Amino acid sequence: MTNGDEGAPADSDASDSDSAPGPGADPDPDLDPLIADLLDGEHRALARTITKIENRSAGYRELVSQLHAHTGDADVIGITGSPGAGKSTLVDKLAATYREAGLTVGVIAIDPASPFTGGAVLGDRIRMASNVGDMDVFFRSMSARGTLGGLSTATTDAVKALDAFGKDKVIVETVGAGQNEVDIVRTADTVVVLVPPGSGDDVQMLKAGILEIADLFVVNKADLDGADRTVSELREMLQLRDGEAGTGGHHGFEETTVDAGSERTGESSDTTPDAPGVEPWDPPIVETVANRGEGIDDLIAAMDDHRAYLVESGQLESKARTRYAEEIRTLLREDTRELLAEEIDARGGLDEHVDAVLRRETDPYAVAEAVLEPLADCVAERRERD
Amino acid sequence: MSAEQGQRQIRCLVAKVGLDGHDRGAHVIARALRDAGFEVIYSGLHRSPDEVVQAAVQEDVDVLGISILSGAHNTLVPRIMDGLAEYGAREDTLVLVGGIIPDDDTDRLREAGVAEIFGPGASMDEMIDYIETNAPERR
Fold first, then answer.
1. What is the ipTM of this complex?
2. DSSP for A133-190?
């Protein structure tokens, strides 16, 4: 389970009390014109803002800072699963159903990029057949450009743009392989994991680590042979985990831990305990046939339940807190790295140091300490003065 | 600071529009553009002009490549151009047309705002060079 985990990057969707009014608020003279247009509901401005976020164009940080005050109203849903599990088709049907209910939808679909050329073919859009010509479904393809940790930052910021634009539901769709992708879906309030029938035995499921991140399981293509087996295997895995949680109680969670034999699956891996009196969340398993639209209503109901649970248990807020903390840390790491890079450049690069290390006159640790020393001194001095 | 330095990547939409089921060419081009390091969004077959506009605007592409082999370019392309104009995307989107376009029609398409037309036999390198040279500078 992902909730409240310290490793989750930050996101934008908390029901913060500091949420500023959305579109229609008084124009702020300090506002970037692009952001003003975005808040005005111009699709082009939204699209361009996301481009700047993706490219990390000059000034994108300003834009994201200005967006923040307008975020916090959207439900963020993460959808992940192996290639071909039916994610895009399911997202298409979800979006259509939300639109029927009068809600607006933003979708970010992430596809892999070639590690060799950086190029990518982003094909998820092809499946969005139910929402063509409906500009209130804003669908954006993003490629996993290979910057370290950059993708989850870019995704978080793009979600903020959609949130500030006023989308009620923001869906982030990604292939659930690798740490990067897991980090991305963790930015969501509700994480849905798609499991196609016949996706291997229970060991495969353990290996994929999907049990830990899912708030909800969807067995898609439930009309295929083997769907029942997949459902029962999943259920078994979840019950096994219950057993562990029941006997472990390793997070100071005794009051709410449930009996080993019960169907309930506690949020026992959480760092934040549930509010008293709220039943722990048990990830349901929903069966769907996405291309025929079957089971979509059940899925939406289950997601709504999860949302209600997050609100009641106070986890929505605590999740948001950990996410923001992590976002700040990520930004600080990035900035510190750059500060150091500047310092190294200003002092003539690393070549001389490397030569000295090669000649065994010094060692990498000593060099690192020497480079960092002036910075550390500055920081210490300032801290004493303040 | 390097985080402020752009990692600009050219984004292209390869679109099949109208009643034209021939997508081999579009696939080949999508792949070649990907191998050239571009991000390529492929629309899929049988898209209406509105869908193409929606995709081009939302994806904020630098380049829109329209593949038409059906002969309906005189109707469909201007509609796409109008749609782009409606969302303020016409000025800074490089619109290319590929397919069978009679010489007599090329002027009309260019007047409508198409930057270049690539017919049969156009080389992939030529097209990639053209895109790299002419992809619009974004503000």
1. 0.86
2. T-TTEEEEEEEE---TTHHHHHHHHHHHHHHHHT-SEEEEEEE--HHHHHHHHTTSSE
